[in-house]
Amino acid sequence: MKTNMKRLMYVAAVGVAMLFTACGNDDGAAAPITLNFTNTEIGLSESVEVGITFSRPADADGSLTLQVISSSLVYGEGADFYTDPAMVDNAVSLSYEAGSESVSFMVFAGSALNIAQEEIITLTLTDADGFELGGDLSATITVSENFIANEGTLEIDGGGADFPNQAFIDLSKLSQTLVDKYSWDLGFYTASGEHHVVLNSSAYVMARPLGGETDLDEVTASDTVGFASIMTISNYEDTEASDWIDDQSGDLSLTAFGEISATANENVVFIIKRDGEGRNWKKVRVLQDGDNYILQYANIDATTHEEVTITKDAAYNFTHFDLDNGVVQVEPEKEQWDLMYSTYSGKANYGVLLAIGYNDYIISNRSDVSVAMVSTEDHAYDEFSADDLASLTFPENNISVIGSSWRTLVDFSLVLDESVFYVVKDSKGNSYKLKFTRLASEDGERGYPEFKIELL
């Protein structure tokens, strides 16, 4: 069964006690039977078995009846939740045989579960053959938020015409997480067995290798004379600058650093140029440390350096590092975002390869998110449906399918490109069609575009 449910937490009340009243005289009376839920807290992704245990084997066949009540959730396999055995008249009947030491039933998330806040299901034990009920006989199921947006619009908060933010967008929640784009410099790839370092392209960070130099302390300001005039995103000048930025496709074989070698002497010193107020130039060297990294770094004119181990966390695409403040949190966990909007550096081939700085640039999450551009000559946005997905090609190893292609120049003015829209497949298996509806805010300020989506 396919379910939209992200998580279901089952929290049982402290104890369920029932006393068995035995026949016979006082000297031969059987000990009371105590019943308890097997677990008091049960996590559920799609289904879970809920058990009730007996303190001793049952003396005869019988059944227990649980009343199941929710004020907001709808029962049914095609609705919010359902059970096995099935619920009838808001009750589940659980049969057991003589000698049984437990009973159990299953709780499932329904295929239509889509809630934006936690909801409660209450279980109450109302009847038990041969048992005298007593004590606290209630339990609760907490159904966690698993909201999936079916459609809607979102104004991206780039922070205005200066574009100070990186906006990480989760389409399934129609939400965004904002990060100061100048809050980090380097990203260390977290995939096991791989060693790659990316630059903060939104802040136009550049990395230039220094020949065969491997001793950070031997590098001085004199080694960087003349660098400032050519280590720049000019958009026009033909310099070597395109060699010192990452390719906007996100291909990790096309980064300025290249692959970090297991042979230490093959990893040279890089000069790091950073945009942003008070962000001076740095010198760095990166080494492998088992499956992690060692980062050596210092100011250009320093004769000593700092060294830190950068560890991997598989929940994220990268471990991010600010050369002034150390490890910082930037991207949300890799399954919690789809697109990022900000400024961005890239390479453009105009006969020569130029380093280009883009405003209003959009990349996709490299972790299980794919994007296809759709021409309105082939499909109208309003008429595009899930049946049309098979006709699309989703480019691999390219995080810049959207990039700057959603807007264009007309008579030297930047406008929306009405001839295209996009289809985004997220890591949760959802497919959305997406079309930009505004280039700027309603007041015309850059940095606040808007798009609309619809779940296919």
Poorly predicted runs: 1-26
Mean pLDDT level: 86
Helix and strand composition category:
mainly beta
Rg, rounded, reads 30 Å
Number of separate helices: 1
- Counting DSSP E segments of at least 2 residues, the number of strands comes to 32
Largest sheet composition: 6 strands, antiparallel
If strands are numbered along the chain, what order do they take across the biggest sheet?
4-1-12-10-6-8
Task: Briefly characterize the structure.
The protein has one helix at about 225-230, and strands spanning about 10, 20, 35, 40-45, 45-55, 60-70, 80-85, 90-95, 100-110, 120-130, 130-135, 140-145, 150-155, 165-170, 175-180, 185-190, 195-200, 205-210, 270-275, 280-290, 290-300, 305-310, 320, 325-330, 340-350, 355-365, 370-375, 405-410, 415, 420-425, 430-440, 450-455. It is mainly β.
In terms of topology, how is this protein built?
Blueprint: E1 8-11, E2 18-20, E3 35-37, E4 41-44, E5 47-54, E6 62-69, E7 81-84, E8 91-96, E9 102-109, E10 119-128, E11 131-133, E12 138-143, E13 151-155, E14 165-170, E15 175-180, E16 186-189, E17 197-199, E18 206-209, H1 227-230, E19 270-273, E20 282-289, E21 292-299, E22 306-310, E23 318-322, E24 326-328, E25 339-349, E26 353-364, E27 370-375, E28 407-410, E29 413-416, E30 420-425, E31 431-438, E32 450-455
Antiparallel strand pairs: 1-4, 1-12, 2-11, 3-5, 5-9, 6-8, 6-10, 7-9, 10-12, 13-32, 14-15, 14-25, 16-17, 16-23, 18-19, 19-20, 20-21, 21-22, 23-24, 25-26, 27-30, 28-29, 30-31, 31-32
